[in-house]
Amino acid sequence: MLPEELPIRIGSASTAHIRVPGPVGEDVAGFIGSLDGRPFLQPSGAAGTALDVNGEPATATRWLSDGDVIGSGALRIGCRFDGDSLRFVVSYADAGYATLPPTPAEVASAGPVIVPRGPQQPAAAPVASRRRPWWLYAGMALLGLLALELFTARAVGIQVTPETARVSVRGVWPA
Fold first, then answer.
1. How many Cα neighbours within 13 Å face the side chain of 114?
2. Rounded to whole angstroms, how far apart are CA atoms 93 and 78?
3. pTM as predicted
């Protein structure tokens, strides 16, 4: 691998270059990068993602040397550096981790068999009547007439001389 192809993501996410066995998650356990031609390991510090180098926990960024072994659970990454090339040998120490699919015998004893069915027509929904009640139209007409009266009404001013006189005006609406 050439230093230009770095960084390498280590983790269980689908975007990881080197996959850690176990349940798939979005966390990246760490990165392998290169600075001035020297490779280094940078742990991400995400919860549940632990890396070690040569058996010692990697808690901070550290330089990698030829022969170092990076580990995470069953994953082992051997580091081989010679000249301008970096070689990482990935191996899995224990292939029997807990996320293997069940065996056919376990599936058969799991319970009743679910039989697939073909497509079904949905039940007919009740059709609502298109007739609206007469009182709805009558109420809307009454509201329209009331709005027309309110918006077209005009104020009337009456001047009376002498001022002590009294005038009454009869209108449509009771006062």
1. 4
2. 12
3. 0.49
For residue 43, the surrounding DSSP H or E stretch is strand 38-43
Predicted confidence (pLDDT) at residue 1 exceeds the cutoff of 60: no
Sheet holding 56-57, edge to edge: 56-57, 52-53, 69-72, 75-82, 85-92
Q: Do the Cβ atoms of 66 and 109 come closer than 8 Å?
A: no
Closest CA to 77 of 93, 85, 88: 88
Distance of alpha carbon 54 from the chain centroid: 37
pLDDT in tens, 103-122: 666 555 666 767 777 777 77
Spatial contact of 29 and 11, defined as CB atoms under 8 Å apart: yes
61: Cβ contacts below 8 Å, ≥ 6 apart: 40, 41, 42, 43
3-state secondary structure of 63: strand
Taking the mean position of all CA atoms in its chain, how far away is CA 84? 42
**pLDDT tens per residue across span 29-57:** 888 888 887 888 888 877 666 788 888 88
> Cα(59)–Cα(45) distance, rounded to whole angstroms?
7
Residue with tokens 């120490």: 93
Assess whether pLDDT exceeds 60 at residue 135.
yes
- Torsion (CA) 116, 117, 118, 119 in degrees, nearest 10: -110
